Amino acid sequence: MSTAKDTNTPSPFLTPADLAARWKVTPMTLRRWRKAGKIKTSFLGRGVRFALSEVERFEREAQA
């Protein structure tokens, strides 16, 4: 039985910079959307993180 961590598993959270690059928007746009309640965030310490499940939900709804 292997206990090595799978390095291909995506992180369950994205930083604002990661998400901005993924969606090709600025971090300021993400901040506005977060404050408007368009996308939910989590705080890890003082940093904002976007749950990958929330990002994927947002993307699915945007395609509909």
Span of the ends, CA to CA? 43 Å
Strand content: 15-25%
Assembly state of the chains shown? single chain
Helix count, DSSP H or I runs of 4 or more residues? 3
Q: Count the strands?
A: 3
Please list the strands of the largest sheet in the order they lie side by side: 1-3-2
Write down the domain tally: 1
Give the overall pLDDT as a whole number: 88
Sequence stretches where pLDDT stays below 50 over 5 or more residues: none
* Rg, alpha carbons: 14 Å
Sequence of secondary-structure elements: EHHEEH
Structural class of the helix and strand makeup? Answer: alpha+beta
Shape: globular
Report the helical percentage. Answer: 40-55%
The description of the largest β-sheet is:
3 strands, antiparallel
Q: How would you describe this structure to a colleague?
A:
The protein has 64 residues and is of the alpha+beta class. It has one domain (13-63). The chain has helices at residues 16-23, 27-36, 52-63, and strands at residues 13-14, 42-44, 47-51. It has a 3-stranded antiparallel sheet with strand order 1-3-2. Helix 1 crosses helix 2. The longest helix is centred in the last third of the chain and has 12 residues, at 52-63. The termini are far apart. 6% of the residues are buried.
